[in-house]
Write a structure and sequence with these properties.
With 230 residues, the protein is α+β, with helices and mostly antiparallel strands. The protein is 38% helix and 15% strand. The radius of gyration is 20 Å and the shape is globular. The termini are far apart. One of its GO terms (molecular function) is oxidoreductase activity.
């Protein structure tokens, strides 16, 4: 994609433009808020299959996110292989057992109590898809030499937000999972040293018996998350 001899700036007319009245803007904003308030992190998945193309389109949405210098420093490994999911679950649960057995502070463990989590992660094998998000710390030119990526965590975080919103819009449920350390994912998935795994996202349909922690329904009000300087 990048070539050392093709790094010039070229301006193009804005290819897409949304033109809404103030009333239309308010309506769209309110509609999207209501839509996203129906998104819930779940741990109880159905094994109902999800078409590959649905996942592909959601990843394409993630790939449209803004990024530092437009380097797009992300990679998404989409896994439906039962064998790979079982391997990832086994290694993730090993790290989680260490976490709950003393790797985390008492304060951290206490903070997790209302969420009801344990070292057991059955969703990693029951959910039909796992998407592992990787951050690319550097890239390579077409001649094989390296170039630095910029604002990598910020860029990958934005793309991950796009992905979660796209999956929800497709009617799917998700759970973000961050075992620590996650280096085992590079080996399991054959990803290069330049890439750092940041998250495993379990993706699928909620089981009929799915629940969420009651605390998850509480969200900070607008006045606690923002200030408007008019």
């Amino acid at each position: 994609m990048f070539s050392k001899d093709n790094l010039s700036y070229e301006a193009l007319p804005l290819p897409d433009r949304l033109r809404y009245s103030d009333d239309e803007m308010r309506a769209h904003a309110t509609e999207f808020l209501a839509h996203m308030r129906k998104r819930h992190s779940i741990r109880d998945f159905s094994d109902r299959p999800v078409p590959r193309e649905v996942i592909a389109d959601c990843i394409r949405t993630a790939g449209s996110a803004p990024s530092g210098a437009n380097h797009q420093p992300w990679f998404f490994a989409a896994i439906t292989s039962a064998e790979l999911k079982a391997q990832i679950r086994a290694e993730a649960e090993e790290e989680e057992r260490k976490f709950y057995a003393g790797g985390a502070s008492d304060e951290w463990i206490k903070a997790l109590e209302p969420i009801g989590t344990t070292a057991d992660k059955p969703h990693l094998t029951i959910a039909p898809w796992l998407i592992v998000v990787f951050a690319q710390r550097w890239g390579t030119f077409d001649d094989g030499s390296r170039y630095k990526n910029y604002y990598v965590p910020e860029s990958v975080n934005i793309a991950t937000g796009f992905l979660l919103a796209a999956l929800h819009t497709a009617g799917l449920s998700t759970l973000t999972h961050t075992p620590n350390p996650m280096k085992f994912l590079n080996g399991a998935l054959g990803r290069p040293e330049a890439e750092k795994p940041t998250m495993i996202i379990a993706v699928g349909h909620a089981a009929e018996t799915a629940t969420v922690p009651s605390v998850a329904k509480w969200k900070k009000p607008l006045k606690e998350i923002s200030t408007f300087y008019d």
